Amino acid sequence: MARYRGARCRLCRREGEKLFLKGERCHTNKCAIERRAYPPGEHGRDRRLRITNYGLQLREKQKARRIYGVMERQFRNYYAEAARKSGVTGENLLQILEMRLDNLVFRLGFANSRPLARQLVLHGHIEVNRRKASVPSYRVRAGDVISIREGSRNLLPIEHSVETRGGRDLPDWLEANTKTMQGRLLRVPTRDTIPVTLQENLIVELYSK
Fold first, then answer.
1. Structure-derived torsion over alpha carbons of residues 123, 126, 127, 132, reported in degrees to the nearest 10
2. Residue 165 and residue 23 in contact, taking contact as beta carbons nearer than 8 Å
């Protein structure tokens, strides 16, 4: 299974904003954006570099991929699915990404970052409707209940995540119970309720060429 294994802080610096890929570290002065707020590489500090329209579109697509931890081929497949559906393609794409199991584990506060949420799913610590789910890209449906397996609730990363994030900043299309370590997807989110700083119209423009 392909996944990014490099330094995550470089990804945030490349996009010029916090993508919250390292949990609590992103909220401290150890965050790479706080210390080196310029792109990585030899020409990172060169202010003379001009960004074309294509460059803006590419950066937005890369930022979306990195936020949700999706590889290129899978992202293209998601876009193709979003384009086939009725409605606004950009909003459809974000809905598909938001309803991934690993993203919802993060949103519910059971993990401090999406990479940790992905790991919890892969290691079999997550259940959907009381059945073990070990595929991070599993598509959760409205009404589904996501929970931590009973034997995994005392794991330190999960306990710490629930204590620091559980039930906080929760979108109105989710509900969480930190005592039972359960959450529910109430409905499909709309664009105005998805808390990401993305210009999805640029991604649509990129793939529409």
1. 0
2. no
